[in-house]
Amino acid sequence: MATLEIHDLHVSVEAENGAREILKGVDLTVKQGETHAIMGPNGSGKSTLAYSLAGHPKYTITGGTVTLDGEDVLEMSVDERARAGVFLAMQYPVEVPGVSVSNFLRTSATAVRGEAPKLRTWVKEVKEAMARLQMDPAFAERNVNEGFSGGEKKRHEILQLELLKPKIAILDETDSGLDVDALRIVSEGVNRVRESGEVGTLLITHYTRILRYIKPDFVHVFANGRIAESGGAELADQLEAEGYDKYVKGGATA
Ligand SMILES: Nc1ncnc2c1ncn2[C@@H]1O[C@H](COP(=O)(O)OP(=O)(O)OP(=O)(O)O)[C@@H](O)[C@H]1O
Ligand SMILES: [Mg+2]
């Protein structure tokens, strides 16, 4: 049973006027098979948490621990984290000119699985995964995210999720910018991966609409760089109705 444990995590970024603390003591445990939704106002540090877990060099860990099955994640390089089973679908996926989607996917799968997937089964695997996400096969030959629409980028993130089968999937606003059909298709992709029972999912979102498709076991309110409240799925409805006012009062977000 894979377990991601975040304890009292503090993270800073280098700003013009010195280091600025963004995460101020995050505590969270995500177990394989569980889905945790994280909701919170703009600028509260949700993406910072996602990037810090994935190992983005811009973020400095100033305190706390992150372990995956007891192993120190913070000691691992970005690719070691990926091999250990941590996956991040980015809020703003980056363009990688000169690298085709098919090359990118095969290289990633080779790195994560520890051996190159057999070409014949691999081609079939990718084709089927793309078909399930209703992606035109022509995307395989395009450069990663180059000229992709917002929704196409998000589908490509979920394609990676399906092919790489991580232990912990962090999905940073995978739902934003999707039309109703794409939201359903992308959610179904996430649910296929969840149904294996082998992935712990951290779903960062602003909207309860994705939670109609992907039922969270826990909902956390993220405010001012930490989790301000945790509850069940009903908490999301309460947030939709009442907003974040009561969580941000008394602490500046800017
Ligand atoms: N390099 C940086 N320099 C200064 N401030 C930064 C830097 N990187 C992030 N921040 C600040 O950290 C705060 C948290 O940003 P983050 O992207 O984690 O928020 P978020 O909760 O994901 O917001 P959103 O809902 O808009 O995606 C913001 O106020 C942001 O401006
Ligand atoms: Mg964000």
UniProtKB/TrEMBL annotation:
Sorted UniProt keywords: ATP-binding, Nucleotide-binding
InterPro entries associated with the record: AAA+_ATPase, ABC_transporter-like_ATP-bd, FeS-cluster_ATPase_SufC, P-loop_NTPase
Family note: Belongs to the ABC transporter superfamily. Ycf16 family.
Protein's name in the database: Fe-S cluster assembly ATPase SufC
Gene3D superfamilies: P-loop containing nucleotide triphosphate hydrolases
Top-level taxonomic group: Bacteria
Gene it is expressed from: sufC
Keyword ATP-binding tagged: yes
Pfam families: ABC_tran
GO molecular function: ATP binding; ATP hydrolysis activity
Domain ABC transporter, chain residue ranges per copy: 4-249
